[in-house]
Amino acid sequence: MQPAPADLLLPVVAAWYGITRREHGVLELALEGLPAQQIARRLSLSLHTVNDHFKAVYRKTRVTCREELISGLCR
């Protein structure tokens, strides 16, 4: 057996924690390693909105930073 890759875990985690479609999109790009500014450009959002999405996900998943969130998905 092998651990599930993050791209397979993300939909399950999103459903479990009540992550919205837009938050999910932000997380997908974060898992690709894109910084917040590039995520904002790619999704046609403001940097402030992207950061708000990250904060909402941190609150829902009870993590404190992007690194902690991503490491939890990429184990």
Task: List the main descriptive attributes of the protein structure presented here.
Arc Repressor Mutant, subunit A; 0% strand
Give an overview in words.
The chain has 75 residues and is an all-alpha fold. It has one domain (6-73): Arc Repressor Mutant, subunit A (Orthogonal Bundle). It contains five helices and no strands. The protein has helices spanning 6-17, 21-31, 36-43, 47-61, 66-73. The mean pLDDT is 89.
Give the overall pLDDT as a whole number: 89
Q: What would the principal axes of the Cα set say about the shape?
A: globular
Q: How many structural domains are formed by the residues?
A: 1
Class based on secondary structure composition and strand pairing: mainly alpha
CATH superfamily: Winged helix-like DNA-binding domain superfamily/Winged helix DNA-binding domain
Q: What is the second-level CATH architecture?
A: Orthogonal Bundle
Distance from N terminus to C terminus (CA atoms, Å) equals 14 Å
Tell me about the largest β-sheet: none
Instruction: Name the helix and strand elements from N-terminus to C-terminus, one letter apiece.
Output: HHHHH
> Which parts are unreliable, with pLDDT below 50 for 5 consecutive residues or more?
none
**Beta-strand content bin:** under 5%
Per DSSP E runs of 2 or more residues, the count of β-strands stands at 0
Using the coordinates above, name the CATH class. Mainly Alpha
CATH fold descriptor: Arc Repressor Mutant, subunit A
